[in-house]
Structures
1.
Amino acid sequence: MTTLIKLEIVRSLRNKKFMFFSVIYPPVLYLIIAGGADSKPIPGMKLDMGLYFMVSMAAFGAMTAVLLGNSERIAKEREKGWVRQLRLTALPGRGYVAAKMAAAATVSLPSILLVLIVAAVVKGVRLEPWQWIAIAVGTWLGSFVFAALGVALGYLATGDAVRPISMLCYFGLAFLGGLWMPLTILPQWVQNIAEWLPTHAYAALGTAVEAGGAPHLKDVAILAGYLLVFTAGAAGLYRKDTHKA
């Protein structure tokens, strides 16, 4: 499994298109959205635009790496017969799923760190050392939820259908979860939905730390629940795919 993780990381780093959208695109998007914003607090929140979008774009970048990258790669590997070849080795099914999640989450770390660096250097965001560390670690750990979703989608859809399905999940969760704009400026019904989405809980880990506190237990519990559901779904779809093969 360790060997497979290393191979997956190396292959991702060699994919220039993937690296651009998962590592370079999020900080660029952060500068576009928050670059000219002032330091006034967002209505209904204690954070300004620079702080809010630093966390949301770090989360968005991690999602790009672990969700889109995982789902499309797995679907294509299934069609080409690579997954079937791996079943002939000593690698167990759970090892394959775990390797995909671990490799994707590892590649997401540069994107998270780059957004934080750009926020500090360009936007002048200032936080305590423990806050920087907590935001980086929390955002990275939370990305495992979407890595599991990416694995599940990779086994759910074919190579031709996986991209529109994963993009729908990707942008839908990002918008409804408040990654594109603060939820306080959206209709109440959107806020009610967002409260139970993994993307909202994901970004809330960082915003809670930015406000000087610890992540809320409810958000942690929501992410843990989604992680269990997505992981179980990925494992179930893997077994189903194995029976078909």
2.
Amino acid sequence: MSTKIQLAQQPEADDLLGRSPLAALVGMLLDQQIPMEWAFSGPYTIAVRMGRDDLDAREIAAYDPEAFAALLSEKPAVHRYPGSMATRVRQLCQFLVEHYDGDPGALWRDVDTGAEVLTRLNALPGFGRQKSQIFLALLGKQFAVRPQGWRAAAGAYGDEGSFRSAADITGPETLAKVRAFKQEAKRAAKQKAAEKPAKPKEAKEPKETKKR
């Protein structure tokens, strides 16, 4: 798997994402509660601090937990919550070692259907259904990993011509479109919540008074 990626908006970080399945998975894992560029530059930062040109699932899985947390916490931190994310990255790598012999590409290599890839992604620590669908869409749209039914399995994130997620970012212009979509979705959700009628309070039954 090697392709031109522009998720981190940083050449060295994007190069790693394009040639390393594990880096792409870790970037997707980190993509929450921080800007996407920060999340997807994280794998490169981790690799550099480990003195490597790529990430290795076995090495990270066996890494001392406190030392790995400290590595992610160095300034600038890899994430807003580097300690908890260090744990999640190690858990992801431990799962890959246990179930896929440390080979992240085996998650989708030679798999016949998008539904099966989605099931495998959804089983990963830190990957809920939404994150799994976004990553499946990323595989199909940018890495040419397109098992039968991948768009349907990815849901709306697999739609052609959409600008919903990291799967649709191919440069600064599409990054701006995805960011605008997310902001509008948040605004609409807030407005919907504000317009929702308040639930009427149930009348409390009077307390019985004890007869003297």
3.
Amino acid sequence: MSAITTLHSVSVRPALPADEEALGELDRSTWSTLHAVVPRPRPPYEPFFDERHRPEDFLVAEAATDADGKSLAGYIRLVPPTPLACNAHVRQIQGLAVAAWARGAGVGRTLLRAACAEARRQGANRITLRVLGHNTPARALYASEGFAVEGVLSGEFFLHGRYVDDVLMGRSLAP
């Protein structure tokens, strides 16, 4: 799809096992030093879904476009941060990706809001995430949706020849 694709509507749904190939392609195409702490994926590619990354952990955004009907525009991964009962009231975002052709059209914000709604539906009253300190666009989006910086792990990662902070953000899901 070209950068001039017009989005007419965006809907969010749970991921399905049949989405694996499209999600893997999206994940690889959106890899960036802005947010990745792992090396760029190289063939042969690992499966997108595995025992730790199950379809039920993901919400996907589908966009109705003028180019080809409906296309997968992004995903967000929402999971409990730990298996502990004392932490069951929290959900954590552990991945958000938006296709290049869909950026700037509100897909990331739509996914973020859907994740908060899904976390509430699951009984959570708090949501957290981690973001690299130099990822200014993501940090701005999260802040605009009520996430606050709750901690900074200074120099937590050594990426591409420099130390990068790991920023911990969170917010309440109370109405």
4.
Amino acid sequence: MGERKASKDGDRKVGRRALLIGGTVAAAGSAVLARDELARLWWRAPGVEKPRKEGEVDYAGARWVAASDANWRRADRPDDYGIDMVVIHVTQGSFDSAVKAFQDPGHKAAAHYIVRQDGHVTQMIRELDVAYHAGNRDYNERSVGIEHEGFVDRPQDLTDKMYEASARLTARICARYDIPVDREHIIGHVEVPGTDHTDPGRHWDWEKYMRLVRRARTTPA
């Protein structure tokens, strides 16, 4: 933009009233920031715990198996972090090996869900909590991670039952948080900035999957 001339009173001193008003606004802004920060850190306060039922799941078709608490962090989503994304993974191993890894505190990673090749869904972390699944803090905080049993270089591992069960799960997540059913909000792990992962791989049929998610999204639960 071009240079603009200074106003005639551009160098005038700020009056006491202006200082007071400015100070009040700044204090109010600081209070809002402090409140927001406290809301994000509520789980760190001694004795503060959001009411939870042991073994409770967010998806009615899922079975609960708890991940190690070293592989996720307690939160109050979507109140402290808005959820606007689903991240699709492939386990690069069997269902049992994925469960074992997510229960290992030394693994330092886990997803909210695992979908088995036969369509069985296991939930290991509550959706309200932040799972360490994407390799990117911002994406972890704003997404739900879904693992799928198999290997990226074996298309036979990506069964119809797996696609259908996963699509129903993703559709319910999108409905719950008003997430658009499109490829900007339902992404592969490989699409997360900064990641070195390639899953779900070139054999993952995105056209088929998105069609199934859209169909499930319009079907009553």
